[in-house]
């Protein structure tokens, strides 16, 4: 698609991630001329990156459970997800010729397990709908009410009738989403919650005995952090802990709750105590391996968490059992925001109408990760980006109709 000159669309969508592309599809389906502008040399870079881990599009679960995953933003997003939630996302992917499958935990993926075929089909649909786009156009902010862009042809200024901002969050800046848009919007009177990492790993100051376990998965544990808990796999790295189960708890860990690990979630405290009582003269490691079938990585975690108790008398079997079922791992801080799968913070609900239009700038709508909501991984991120993109597109179409 070439850059039309002069650009005279009904609506300009800035940011070509899933939210912006869905807004463009919705507007173009309502017969509006739409032009998409992207700061990077190509479209959907973070979406393609999400595809490297299989592209978890959504989760096949009842809408009430699904919506609850958005925490404080659940009631805000509810009408949007009720219209475009898990069943609609699945039907949409299939309408783009992408067969999908649902894993044992309900997570839904394209069978291709990557984003590129879906993105190709989507861009082809947008092309058919007459959507044009320009890449390497970076939005700089507002000047005298106009949108200012830095482009290879120099600075460009546009005054579209309607604009949709879909600029993403503030992680993985190299893929385009650097959160730099926040400064310009704050200056325009838009209320913003500070960005924070979401779905990220955490640093741990490991003792030297942990080195052989770097890169190893930790299986069969139940993790708790404040009100959140999960049972799933996570990974020990030289820098700390990461992986799906840690991301599930990252909001609570970020808020300062300790990480509590049940190394033996399938055995009761009484059974663990009984097995520990038979220890005899064997070493603790041998006993944990033989009587409780703990693998070397989980045994190393026991020693790691016992470091602070060094020099103190051995705990009784009952006290040891309690420890094995509630090991507290000391984490120091979250990994840097740029490494996070997503970010919390962004445009506050109070700065938007129910139709996602900026109160400070009528005719400008916002959607996707740049809004102030967060959720765990599991398909919730992409689904909310698509749902808010569609909602913003629908309301922008209504705005154009009412002009
Ligand atoms: C490694 C990884 C794996 C992930 N896996 C999953 C997954 O399996 N399932 C899931 O639900 N989510 C996943 N996510 C999260 C998901 O990719 C994002 O939540 C989603 O892409 C956000 O969509 P968006 O359209 O709001 O923003 P983005 O996809 O970030 O798109 C925003 C676009 O705006 C452009 N832009 C930004 N600033 C400017 C500017 N000033 N001028 C012009 N253009 C600009 C950016 O270049 C970018 O293309 C993953 C993320 C990562 C990093």
Q: Provide the domain count.
A: 2
Oligomer: single chain
Task: Indicate the structural class.
Answer: alpha+beta
Percentage of residues in DSSP E strands:
15-25%
| Name of the top-level CATH class of the largest domain | Alpha Beta
Bound molecules: flavin-adenine dinucleotide
CATH topology type of the largest domain: FAD/NAD(P)-binding domain
Number of strands: 22
What distinguishing features does this structure have?
single chain; 403 residues; alpha+beta; FAD/NAD(P)-binding domain; 2 domains; five-stranded parallel sheet; five-stranded antiparallel sheet; 13 helices; 21% strand; elongated; disordered N terminus; binds flavin-adenine dinucleotide
Describe the structure.
- There is one protein chain.
- The model is unreliable at 1-6 (pLDDT under 50).
- The two termini are 28 Å apart.
- It contains 13 helices and 22 strands.
- The chain is elongated and about 85 Å long.
- A hairpin with a 2-residue loop joins strand 7 (138-143) and strand 8.
- The protein has 2 domains: 11-196 and 345-402, FAD/NAD(P)-binding domain (3-Layer(bba) Sandwich); 202-334, no CATH class.
- The strands form 6 sheets. Strands 6-2-1-10-22 form a 5-stranded parallel sheet, with helices on one face. A 5-stranded antiparallel sheet has the order 13-16-17-12-20.
- It is of the alpha+beta class.
- The structure holds flavin-adenine dinucleotide.
């Amino acid at each position: 698609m070439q850059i039309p000159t002069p650009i005279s669309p009904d609506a300009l969508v800035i940011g070509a991630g899933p939210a912006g592309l869905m807004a463009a599809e919705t507007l173009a389906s309502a017969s509006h001329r739409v032009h998409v502008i992207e700061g990077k040399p190509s479209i959907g870079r973070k979406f393609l990156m999400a595809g490297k881990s299989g592209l978890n599009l959504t989760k096949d679960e009842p809408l009430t459970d699904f919506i609850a995953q958005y925490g404080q933003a659940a009631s805000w997003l509810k009408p949007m997800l009720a219209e475009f939630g898990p069943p609609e996302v699945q039907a949409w992917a299939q309408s783009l010729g992408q067969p999908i499958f649902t894993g044992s935990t309900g997570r839904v993926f394209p069978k291709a397990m990557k984003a590129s075929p879906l993105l190709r089909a989507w861009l082809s649909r947008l092309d058919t709908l007459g959507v044009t786009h320009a890449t390497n156009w970076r939005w700089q902010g507002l000047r005298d009410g106009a949108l200012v862009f830095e482009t290879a042809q120099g600075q460009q200024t546009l005054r579209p009738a309607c604009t949709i901002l879909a600029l993403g969050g503030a992680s993985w800046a190299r893929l385009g989403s650097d959160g730099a848009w926040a400064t310009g919007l704050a200056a325009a009177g838009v209320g913003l919650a500070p960005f924070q990492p979401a779905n990220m790993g955490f640093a741990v100051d490991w003792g030297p005995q942990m080195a052989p376990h770097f890169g190893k998965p930790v299986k069969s544990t139940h993790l708790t952090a404040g009100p959140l808990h999960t049972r799933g796999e996570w990974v020990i790295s030289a820098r700390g802990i990461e992986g799906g189960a840690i991301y599930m708890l990252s909001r609570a860990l970020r808020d300062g709750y300790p990480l509590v690990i049940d190394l033996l979630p399938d055995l009761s405290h009484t059974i663990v105590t009984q097995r520990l009582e038979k220890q005899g003269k064997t070493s603790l490691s041998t006993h944990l391996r033989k009587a409780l079938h703990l693998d070397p990585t989980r045994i190393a975690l026991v020693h790691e968490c016992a470091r602070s108790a060094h020099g103190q008398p051995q705990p009784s079997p009952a006290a040891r059992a309690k420890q094995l079922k509630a090991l507290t791992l000391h984490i120091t801080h979250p990994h840097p925001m740029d490494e996070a799968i997503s970010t919390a913070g962004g445009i506050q609900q109070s700065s938007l109408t129910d139709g996602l239009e900026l109160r400070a700038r009528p005719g400008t709508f916002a959607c996707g990760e740049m809004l102030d909501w967060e959720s765990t991984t599991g398909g919730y991120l992409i689904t909310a980006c698509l749902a808010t993109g569609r909602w913003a597109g629908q309301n922008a179409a209504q705005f154009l109709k009412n002009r």
